[in-house]
Amino acid sequence: xxxxxxxxxxxxxxxxxxxxxxxxxxxxxxxxxxxxxxxxxxxxxxxxxxxxxxxxxxxxxxxxxxxxxxxxxxxxxxxxxxxxxxxxxxxxxxxxxxxxxxxxxxxxxxxxxxxxxxxxxxxxxxxxxxxxxxx
Length: 135
Known about the structure:
eight-stranded antiparallel β-barrel
């Protein structure tokens, strides 16, 4: 009987943890980029170009996927504490890309707007996607 209680407790705990994990889907409208030159200096951000693609944040699988022409897959190694200020909120993710390189992804929510921005900080480039959450 004690064995069944323990199994039930583990099962309920597992269900509770699974229920808190979610997948968030976003649709982008544009992308901008800055690149680092051979001297280590960053370029100005490019003008936003139209980019109608899907981005998913899957907290169950600890990954963010950008479904661009070349799919960008980022494994989340750590979740930083969310920050909020007068401009909006910032969620930061410590990640690794498919090449094993560490990078930082940030989702900024602009206060009073449904527009979000995804920043992808890598060693040699920074991408910014304007996007909206899709239910």
